[in-house]
Amino acid sequence: MAVDPITFSIIRHRLYRVVDEAVITLKHVSGSAITNEGHDLMVSLYRADGSLLMGGVGFLHHLTSAAEACKAIIRRFEGRINEGDVFLLNDPYTAALHTSDIYLVAPIHHNGQLVAWSACFVHVYDIGAKNPGGFCPDAEDIYTEGYSSPGVRLVNKGELNQDVLDTLLNMVRSPEMVTLDIRSMIACNNVAHDRMLSLIDKYGYDTVDEACSQLIEQSEQQLRARLRELPDGTWESRQYLEVLDEVYKVNLKMTKSGDELVFDFTGSSPQSKYSVNCTQWASLGGLFAPLFPLICYDITWNEGCISPIKMIAPEGSIVNCTRPAPVSVATVGAIQSVNNAACTTIGKMLQTSEKYAKEATSVWHANHFAIFKFGRSQRGGEAIGIFTETFAGAGGARTYADGVDVGGEIPNPISRMANVETVENTFPIRYLFRRRMTDSGGPGKYRGGTGMEFAVVQHDSPDGGMHYVVSGKGANFPMSEGLAGGYPGAPNSYQWVHNNEAKAEGTNVDVRGTQSIEEMPGEKEDVTWGVFPLMGDDALYVRWNGGGGYGDPLARDPDAVVEDVVGGVVSADAARDVYGVAINQSGNGHDAEGTAAMRSSMRSARLVLEAAE
């Protein structure tokens, strides 16, 4: 019997609140900046069979992977799942994205019957891999990427299995912080458990169960109806990754037919010897991460949204690697390339629809930089952590507006970066500057949002400095694709500035007073993969990509270009050479006739080039 509309709506909103309260608990208990500052987390609810019931915010890649984690636990512990249990799983070849992402999944029983699951994840402080923090450019295989479990009972009938926890803690560099990560997830699941039982006690199990079934059915009906409104067709995208001069390709062909979408990654590169690979579950999560917010923005994220979607990912490829290929850099490697490619194909489809064109977007923040710093803090304790600037992102341009400067990212609606003071209080480093990056947003009729740049030096370190791990997809390829003729955002850049050598040679420049990389006296060395020192007056400079642009840059309102130049987000050179705008001598306006003539000349030059090709 169907639940009446009012009760159904109340239960649906209560389910949202269950997830929200569990997320708040997770953030408040965790002591890790990557969790409570960067929001590298996820909390969701699942049906008794492990299917997705209510997807929460955080990194959306994990909604489907955690569903598979629940199903893997159900298969592994069939007949032995008790009330009050909590299971730990972090094996990428079972369900997780990489070993650093630990899932804790907990059954929810009512009157002795298994009725639901809660699941959460955080990127734990350390996992015992070859490199601190878990992103492991030195890994040759999964065996060198840290502790890994396909499923183990961490809590048995409400009692912590201390021997299991001790086994994990014995393998990590900072057991105190990893313990806090684990306990924050246990607390999160406890809150979800209590709030779900409170909901069932109020409305009765049969009513809540029926409402959950209706909710999944409703989501599927709504998504299929939306897909039927969109035009049939095939759209393609291609992403390139670079690791130490080796280039890999993620190839996507998305076909929409009737009320189904098929994502086909045939043609992607074979799996790599480096840890940028991802497993099939990671690729599935990767394509859903932009699909949920771009197509299902007003639909409850659950199993109903998954049913109309199919994925083809050839086994042995970089998007469906086979064991024991290394995958620790997957979340900022192949998975994010899958995100980007899916975002592009979805955007191409949406922009062809008059009704849904405003939902289309160019690619946001396409190249995460996973830079983990490690060493002794200014207080003598061990410190490991990520530069959370990677979560600050940059918004892609839309069909009607510019992208948001430093606007986050599509796959995580609540991502953010820590403030400078938080980082400097935790690690022995000092920021020289942190600001929006000029010319980083992809040019277009609507400009992509800007990324940022920053530089740091060691400060007050008991060891004279610390080290950092750089991994990702390289810096040679722009990955924030534009749409409809829009240009991509600028690529990342990572530079080791050798100021110590310059100082030894007698330079009188005060490195710590410099406000740009150009002012620093040291030699600049590009670094993209490996472990590097940050000692003395040497600096680490990082620039990250802006969002992709939309439309022809020569169609951009010249006054908007002038405003960008005045605001420092577009250079005068780019205004002239890319946008065809003749900035006047005062720098606060443009010559209308000069701009028209320059743009006409640039369009004619394009035609000549096209004819020559």
Based on helices, strands and strand pairing, what is the structural class? Answer: alpha+beta
Q: Please, how many helices?
A: 14
Strand order of the largest sheet: 2-1-5-4-3-6-7
State the distance separating the first and last CA atoms: 66 Å
Outline the low-pLDDT stretches. none
**Strand fraction band?**
15-25%
Shape: globular
Count the beta strands: 20
Gyration radius from CA atoms, angstroms: 25 Å
Mean pLDDT score, rounded? Answer: 96
Task: Work out the helicity level.
Answer: 25-40%
| Biggest sheet overview | 7 strands, antiparallel
| Total number of distinct structural domains | 3
Please write out the topology.
Layout: H1 5-29, H2 33-36, E1 41-47, E2 52-54, H3 62-76, E3 86-89, E4 101-110, E5 113-123, E6 152-156, E7 159-160, H4 162-169, H5 175-203, H6 205-229, E8 233-243, E9 246-257, E10 260-264, H7 280-295, H8 303-306, E11 309-312, H9 334-351, E12 370-376, E13 382-386, H10 420-426, E14 429-436, E15 452-458, E16 465-471, E17 493-498, H11 499-504, E18 523-526, E19 530-535, E20 539-543, H12 558-567, H13 572-577, H14 592-612
Parallel strand pairs: 10-11
Antiparallel strand pairs: 1-2, 1-5, 3-4, 3-6, 4-5, 6-7, 8-9, 9-10, 12-13, 12-16, 14-15, 15-20, 16-19, 17-18, 17-20
Helix pairs in contact: 1-5, 1-6, 3-7, 5-6, 7-9
